[in-house]
Amino acid sequence: MKKLVATAFMLGIVTAPAFAQGKESEPLEILDRDKKLQAEALDKQYKRMMERNRKEGETQRADPWSNMRAPNEGKGK
Questions:
Q1: Predicted confidence (pLDDT) per residue in 8-46, tens digit
Q2: Domain limits of the chain?
Q3: What pLDDT score was predicted for residue 14?
Q4: What single string gives the DSSP state of each residue in 10-72?
Q5: CA–CA separation, 6 vs 18, rounded Å?
Q6: Coil, strand, or helix at residue 4?
């Protein structure tokens, strides 16, 4: 009986670190991970917006001051 109790006790001590690894991370680690994920999402959103603006800029080449100039002012003299 003593051997069985001693064996169970030793197995409990040996397996304790394995169970400790399954616990939730520290609160600061969770906050850091969340901040990192938010920063990555914001960066992806920024890159998508810049890519969209670049594509729109290639198709739009309008002169915003064209209606303010005289008809021949923009042409060579």
A1: 887 778 777 666 665 667 888 889 999 999 999 999 999
A2: 24-58
A3: 75
A4: HHHHHHHHHHHTTSPPPHHHHHHHHHHHHHHHHHHHHHHHHHHHHHHHHH----TTTTTS-TT
A5: 20
A6: helix
Distance CA 50, CA 43 (A): 11
Query: Is residue 60's pLDDT more than 70?
Result: no
**Dist. CA 40–CA 52, nearest whole Å:** 18
Encoded tokens for 29 = 């680690």
Look at residue 29 and give its three-state secondary structure: helix
User: What is the identity of the amino acid at 32?
Assistant: D
Coil, strand or helix at 45: helix
To the nearest 10°, report the CA torsion of 56, 61, 65, 71.
-150
Query: Does 10 or 52 have the greater pLDDT score?
Result: 52
